Amino acid sequence: MDQKLKVGIIGATGMVGQRFITLLHDHPWFEVVCLAASPRSAGKTYREALDGRWSQEMELPKEVASMVVLDAMEVEKVAGQVDFVFCAVDMDKEATKKLEEDYAKAEVPVVSNNSAHRWTKDVPMVIPEINNGHIEIIASQKKRLGTSRGFIAVKPNCSIQSYVPALSALQSFGPKEVLACTYQAISGAGKTFETWPEMLDNVIPYIGGEEEKSEKEPLKIWGSIQGDEIVPATLPVISAQCIRVPVADGHMAAVFVEFEEKPSKEEILKAWAEFAGRPQELGLPSAPRQFLRYMEEDNRPQTRLDRNYEKGMGITVGRLREDHIYDYKFVCLSHNTVRGAAGGAVLIAELLTAEGHIGAK
Question: Global pTM?
């Protein structure tokens, strides 16, 4: 790419917004030129707006620290500076939905980390290795919105990023029933141990709204475009439990699956080893070279050791064995704020750019 695209981050002061900054620092295709947040942050430098809340391991980049934060509600002002935006705001669902549509109608493509538009029928919810074809629905969405270049694409919930790829590699065997129990890091709630000391030495067996998302969102990802909408798949039937655990980063899932045609263990391992998608084919900058890695050790994957596999963009799987109720069971792990949040959105933006849906104004 001859010239980098100009990027804005809406919701820049939150944990996911901060992660976007670390991932876009020195990105070969994208340059952060605009930061926006709530009115209380507007007018301050980014460092001042953070007020000591920078939570990333990487030092806050100097060029970003001195940027003056804009009011995210001043859509036209932000839109005039960027080619597209990432959105990671902390607002209620209806307000988020309106804000993202306002940016799209201002002819700015929106790649969203939020849940507001995940069930809008003409908005693609994408894991790029799995359902890259869903981005073709953007033409129908533009027609509805009355835009020429503005649209919305969303990333699915972080809790499904570990087990949906592993199951997607096995679609040819017809998974029909899935039980998934997720063990989710506190950063998924936008927290650290400093801001959430109650999580030390504690497990909370409830995360609001998470189980419904974990059961329903995979079906949209495995669905198909029919006319002007994406119609969810009907199988597999998924039952989920989502548990908050005292881990900084990394969502783990214990998965049990029943197939229409039970594969051998060797067939499953081969399918995982060979699984790749459009990002690998295109060689996108953030794409993991090996999307799924199976670990032979009985005690792997482990969150602390394996969450950063492929810079946090890959999925690790282990403990595959037959089950006496279901056909098989296994464990898988993803980095929830990289692959599951900002990194997944960056990969979507790279895919949209490579496929001609995002470009310079």
Answer: 0.97
